[in-house]
Amino acid sequence: MALATAAPAHAQQTGLPVWLVGTWCGELGAVGPRLCDSWAVGEGGTLQNRLRPAEDSGVADDGSTGEIAIEQGRLVMRGGVDGAVKFDFREVSRGPQEVVFENRMDGLVLKFRIVRVGDDLIEDIWIKDRPEPQRTVYHLKK
After folding, report:
1. Which residues contact residue 8 at a Cβ distance below 8 angstroms, ignoring those fewer than 6 apart?
2. Are 87 and 111 in contact (CB under 8 A)?
3. Could you say which DSSP state residue 140 is in?
4. pLDDT classification of 9: cutoffs 50, 70, 90
5. Residue 110 · residue 103 · CB < 8 Å
6. Are 136 and 26 in contact (CB under 8 A)?
7. What percent of the chain is modeled with pLDDT above 90?
8. What are residue 6's phi and psi, to 5 degrees?
9. CB atoms within 10 A of CB 74
């Protein structure tokens, strides 16, 4: 995936969270591997995502991809491992540099909150009814 360093002007008009555009690297949770999460403006009015281990992590690439699109005026994030079922996460709320997605499947609730603070991207993931999220802080790769 070729990455743009900044979102084109037309993409900024779409309502997509173009503040995600770029490559972000960080540790998965408190003890996880180092990952890089790349976002780019894709064709067809979507944001395209590729999550892969950092070169120095020693972890195999599972081919995780995703996209954010707008459906019926709300954001939808689809993601998963290549060749497997993709899961839909629907927008619950959004702000200028924050978006929250949720998926309810078979009684399992997954909730993602993504916030940009300067050159940091904070991702909180809640699984089911756990009171504390798993937090990953990514840093913009320059």
Report:
1. 41
2. no
3. E
4. low
5. yes
6. yes
7. 41
8. -145, 150
9. 13
Enter the tokens of residue 65: 């991809």
**Which H/E stretch holds residue 33?**
none
| Confidence check: pLDDT of 115 > 80 | yes
What are the tens digits of pLDDT across the range 56-101? 777 778 878 889 999 999 999 998 777 777 788 999 999 999 999 9
Of all residues in the chain, what percent carry a pLDDT higher than 70?
Answer: 85
How far is Cα 23 from Cα 49, in angstroms, rounded to an integer?
A: 10
Other Cβ atoms within 10 Å of 30 Cβ, number: 8
**Whole-number Å distance between alpha carbons of 79 and 140:** 21
In whole angstroms, give the CA distance from residue 117 to residue 100: 15
The length of the chain is: 142
pLDDT at 2: 40
